[in-house]
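User: Structure with S-adenosylmethionine, tokens only please.
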Amino acid sequence: MNVALIESKNMLSLESKNLNSVAKQFRCPEGNEGIVIDELLNENHDKMIRQSIQSLELEEKNRVLELGHGSCKHLPYLMEQAPNIKYFGMEISELMKDEAVKINSKYIKKNDALFQLYDGYKIPYVHNIFDRILAVNTIYFSENPVQFLNEMFRVLKPGGVFVLTFANSTFIDKLSSVDSDVFILYDEYKIKKLIGETRFESFDIKERFERKKTMQGEWIDKSYSVVTLRKKPKELIL
Ligand SMILES: C[S@@+](CC[C@H](N)C(=O)[O-])C[C@H]1O[C@@H](n2cnc3c(N)ncnc32)[C@H](O)[C@@H]1O
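Assistant:
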């Protein structure tokens, strides 16, 4: 996968790097290169992240969990969607967690946001605690995606919503690609099959497009999917 082929002012510093090492940085940014990767992600994912936040349909006092938030420059946008939101960010990258803490100190001081590291598998919270869950460009890195989604199901409240967003493998194939064992790519068929193996019963998928320019100056449509998964309200659980 070579997301880095999308035009970027940061591209030059990555060009000479081995693409598999860049892919590993996408999975868990670290060091100086991790900072460059984060800037690249922010440049390219802003619209995708905003669309995903809108799909959360946030309501007053919602408790929101986000997996893989990166440096979380989108927190102000998320917080302005509804009053009195409590935000909980979980990362596997210490660098990204630390950047998010620096950038969002205003929310942390007010006890409206908390950023934590975890092992990437077990969310350190009890069952049925979050109203909303968000994961953008994170599913690719899960070695056991069924377990990953079931863990989200466990911590989601009955009636809660989980928004899962990913760039479609068809779009990524249009870019010059490298074989990488760091990523698992998804398309609509593959994500439906995956969800069918989890505890989620109700979901819908919206495909979105964004015009992007490649390093070769060619315009392409970036295709990504916003999947909204719902946990049944309590009265409907038998
Ligand atoms: C490709 S970046 C995406 C960052 C941001 N969400 C975006 O769309 O620009 C993937 C992020 O997810 C984090 N990550 C990878 N696997 C994770 C997991 N199992 N749980 C939480 N975060 C994870 C990485 O550390 C990295 O910050």
